[in-house]
Design brief:
Elements (H helix, E strand, L loop, with lengths): L1 H10 L8 E4 L8 H8 L1 H4 L3 E5 L16 H4 L14 E5 L15 E4 L9 H9 L2 E4 L6 H9 L4 E7 L9 H5 L4 E2 L7 E6 L9 E4 L5 E6 L1 E5 L15 H7 L18 E3 L13 E4 L12 E7 L19 E2 L2 E2 L3 E6 L5
Parallel strand pairs: 1-2, 1-5, 5-6, 12-13
Antiparallel strand pairs: 2-3, 3-4, 6-11, 7-11, 8-10, 9-10, 13-17, 14-17, 15-16
Length: 341
């Protein structure tokens, strides 16, 4: 979280100054999102921090929940509400009187409802906020994104890289209304989960203190906040030099093939994009990790053999990048804004 937020601060040191930040999908009692923004409240120049949690009984597959000592020892603890009501934590001022605003100054209470982001209660908090930062449920990514975009809010949220291919998501990327963050471009990421969470993920561990973690593949940041990497053009070789010197056996000595049903060439790796090709190029969706809107224009997307792709139909009626009659993996279609020979 800190590494990603630093990318925005390096580009614009005042990006969070005098802003209200909402964290609407967190358990504020142990969330690292809440911890980061609370501990850096003064350094970021925040106006207000709001963090909300989801009530245990609101989940259809509710896991037995044990209130924390923090909650049980608080004056506002209510054993009847702890299972059915979400919580809201706010930070605005130095409550403890130690002349520092940090995590110790968080104030909390129960929400009126369960804390679902779609509720009127949380939607009002969204409308109050300037920037929304969170790790939303990946299964509700489309709905959560629509909830943000409908309110025209800046955001930094986590999601799966394949969300790029959703018809609700890709147009925002194509039109430069949303882009990928800076700090994650490959590999999987580790997430801490509650003690009651079942460890049925492909990768998981329990640390020395008994805290549970799961590993999730293909994680990316999706954001509307600008960062410097977006404006760094890729250094590329010409088509001839790629054929001669490429480190990829699919390109070296072979060159580039055209699709059966698109007037575009197949570029299997982002670093193999030829600098002097003036037509449309089909590139992997992970190209967006290196995408600079000053260097390339996104033409569209060719749906491939993964679900949810926001493909564009072809004159033959076949959607997707076909080569030799075989459907290839989904590709983003791009063009150079200025060809370099």
């Amino acid at each position: 979280i800190q590494k990603e937020m630093n990318a925005y601060l390096e580009y614009n040191p005042d990006v969070f100054r005098d802003k209200t930040v909402l964290l609407p999908c967190d358990d504020p009692e142990w969330s690292n999102f809440t911890k980061y923004f609370a501990q850096n409240f003064e350094a970021l120049g925040l106006k207000k921090l709001i963090s909300t949690s989801y009530a245990p009984d609101s989940k259809p597959d509710a896991i037995p929940y044990q209130p924390t000592l923090f909650e049980m020892e608080s004056p506002g603890y209510d054993p009847e509400k702890t299972q059915t009501k979400g919580k809201i934590f706010t930070l605005t001022h130095d409550k403890t009187g130690d002349n520092v605003i940090n995590v110790d100054d968080l104030e909390w209470s129960y929400l009126e409802g369960g804390g679902d982001f779609r509720s009127e209660e949380i939607t009002k908090l969204r409308d109050e906020a300037d920037i929304i930062v969170t790790n939303p449920p990946f299964s509700l990514f489309r709905e959560f994104l629509a909830w943000l975009v409908g309110a025209d809010k800046d955001f930094v949220i986590l999601g799966n890289v394949n969300a790029i291919t959703y018809k609700e998501v890709f147009p925002l990327i194509k039109d430069n209304k949303m882009w990928l963050g800076q700090s994650i471009s490959s590999g999987d990421r580790e997430f801490r989960v509650p003690d009651s969470y079942p460890l049925n993920a492909a990768g998981w561990r329990v640390d020395e203190e008994g805290q549970k973690f799961i590993r999730v593949k293909g994680v990316r940041w999706f954001t509307t906040l600008d960062h410097g990497r977006r404006h760094e053009p890729l250094s590329l070789m010409t088509e001839a030099d790629n054929i001669k010197f490429s480190k990829h056996k699919e390109v070296k000595g072979i060159g580039y093939q055209k699709y059966d049903n698109y007037d575009a060439i197949e570029v299997p790796f982002t670093d193999s994009i030829p600098s002097d090709y003036d037509g449309v190029l089909g590139v992997p969706i992970t190209f967006l990790d290196k995408y600079s809107p000053e260097q390339f224009a996104i033409v569209g997307m060719a749906a491939g053999n993964i679900r949810g792709l926001a493909g564009i139909p072809t004159s033959t009626g076949k959607d997707g990048p076909y080569m030799g009659g075989k459907l290839k993996y989904g590709r983003i279609l791009i063009k150079h804004k200025q060809v370099t020979k």
